[in-house]
Q: What sequence folds into this?
């Protein structure tokens, strides 16, 4: 599948779902069984602020390949002006870049790289 032909926001849409699934799976495996606590913990991981911070930190570490950075930049540079009221547009765009990368890795069935990425995310939180 040539993911370059897929709208970057569609990749981010899928990536958002995959991202949340990985986070929920992780939290359940940590032994959190209370639904209210699960929701509260999930929000910490899936917030745009947290996702943007992850991108920034991993970028500084040189974690992303050049092709992964291209996907992140495509997501970050999309022309959407919509964003949640609780964060600024730049933060939201970086979060969109991370979600687009997750969508790309998922569609390409690159589970090894997804696991590497999520292991880094869990280290940071």
A:
């Amino acid at each position: 599948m040539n993911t370059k032909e897929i709208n970057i926001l569609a990749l981010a849409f899928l990536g958002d779902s995959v991202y949340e699934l990985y986070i929920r799976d992780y939290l359940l495996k940590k032994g959190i069984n209370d639904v209210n606590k699960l929701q509260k913990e999930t929000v910490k991981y899936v917030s745009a602020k947290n996702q943007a911070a992850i991108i920034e930190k991993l970028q500084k570490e040189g974690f992303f390949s050049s092709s992964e950075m291209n996907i992140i930049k495509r997501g970050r540079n999309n022309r959407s002006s919509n964003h949640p009221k609780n964060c600024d547009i730049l933060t939201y765009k970086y979060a969109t870049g991370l979600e687009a990368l997750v969508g790309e890795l998922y569609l390409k069935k690159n589970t090894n790289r997804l696991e590497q990425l999520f292991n880094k995310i869990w280290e940071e939180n």
Observations:
- Residues 3-124 form a domain with the Ribonuclease iii, N-terminal Endonuclease Domain; Chain A fold (CATH 1.10.1520.10).
